[in-house]
Structure formats: C-alpha cells, structure tokens
C-alpha cells in the first residue's frame, strides 16, 4: 500500500501557546516540532505563521498553524459545516481508558459528550479544544475478524442505499431494524 500510516493532519488554531498547553497537558501528547515562516513554503504567499506538531504513541501527529493575518475563522473551522462533522479522533487502548479519560477531562472542566456506541464498531467521547475543534477519543469495540469483514463487505451496500434514498427510512434492509444495528450476524 502506498500510504503507510497517518503522519499528520493539520488545522488552524487561534493561539499556538494555548494549543501547546492543551495538547501536552490535557491530552499528554509530545510537542515534537515547531517551525516558523513569513511565507507559506508551498505557495510563497506572505503569511507569518507558526506550525506546531504533537506526536502520539505510534509516531503519528496532529498539527496546527497559527496564522493571524489570514482571513476567515481564527479556528479554521468552516462556519457552514455542522459543528459535529469536522473532528479528529484519537484511538485509546480500552474502554477502561476511555471512561477514565472522560472523568479526567470533566475534572479539568471540559464538557464531554458520550460515551457513544457507533454501530458496535467503535465507542467514543467528544469534546472541544481551545480553538473550537471537535476532538474524539475512541476505542475499537469490534475485534471479531468475521464481523469486521462483514462491515467492510457491507460498506458499498450502505453507500448504495444512501445514494438511492438520502435518508434511512429503509434502514431495515441493511441494518435489520429501524433503530440500532440488529444485523443477522450480531
Ligand atoms: Fe468520528
């Protein structure tokens, strides 16, 4: 496969120092790199900025730009996209870790949503970083290779039904129930 793993996903932040504090102290990531330029290296456009990287356990990163002269939302979020759509999900190792993290984040004053079960595939909690980016901590809850293969085999059918209907009034065709995911192999 060409793409081996996530290197980084990058977003705009309001304040780099506040962002460093949040990602290192609240989420425990490693602050591995900061680069500063007056001109965007790829385009040459004048935009003084700092680009900061935070590393996870597997070596992948989440990264941010503080670029105060650029137009648009300082957080970089698209105001026309619902707030729950754009988000970044970190994987944690167990349900126990997820629930402990929820408690710790709440103790630090964050508003945490969840845990939410997504299709018996993953379970997640949600909160916002200081710039307003939605973050997710998630744990894989389906470890059965047969069921995982079923999910992958089924994905094109899910997409096809969506393309036909653009709602889920016919969800029983695929999911076995009008709510939840009561598939035959469950
Ligand atoms: Fe997600």
Automatic annotation (TrEMBL):
Cofactors: Fe(2+)
Name of the featured protein: Fosfomycin resistance protein FosB
Recorded GO MF terms: dioxygenase activity; ferrous iron binding
Family: Belongs to the extradiol ring-cleavage dioxygenase family.
Keywords attached to this entry: Aromatic hydrocarbons catabolism, Dioxygenase, Iron, Metal-binding, Oxidoreductase
Cited Gene3D superfamilies: 2,3-Dihydroxybiphenyl 1,2-Dioxygenase, domain 1 (3.10.180.10)
Residue ranges annotated for the VOC domain, each copy included: 5-140
Pfam families attached to this UniProt entry: Glyoxalase
Source organism per UniProt: Pigmentiphaga humi
């Amino acid at each position: 496969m060409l793409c081996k793993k996530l290197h980084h996903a990058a977003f705009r932040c309001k304040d780099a120092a506040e962002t460093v504090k949040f990602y290192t102290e609240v989420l425990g990531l490693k602050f591995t790199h900061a680069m500063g330029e007056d001109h965007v290296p790829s385009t040459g456009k004048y935009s003084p900025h700092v680009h900061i990287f935070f590393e996870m356990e597997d070596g992948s990163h989440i990264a941010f730009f503080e670029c105060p002269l650029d137009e648009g939302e300082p957080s970089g979020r698209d105001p026309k996209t619902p707030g729950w759509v754009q988000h970044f999900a970190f994987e944690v190792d167990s349900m126990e870790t997820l629930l402990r993290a929820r408690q710790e984040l709440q103790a630090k004053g964050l508003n945490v949503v969840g845990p939410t079960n997504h299709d018996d595939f993953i379970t997640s909690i949600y909160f916002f970083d200081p710039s307003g980016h939605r973050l997710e901590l998630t744990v894989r809850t389906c470890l059965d290779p047969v069921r995982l293969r079923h999910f992958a085999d089924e994905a094109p059918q899910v997409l096809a039904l969506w393309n036909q209907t653009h709602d889920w009034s016919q969800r029983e065709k695929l999911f076995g129930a009008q709510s939840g995911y009561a598939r035959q192999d469950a």
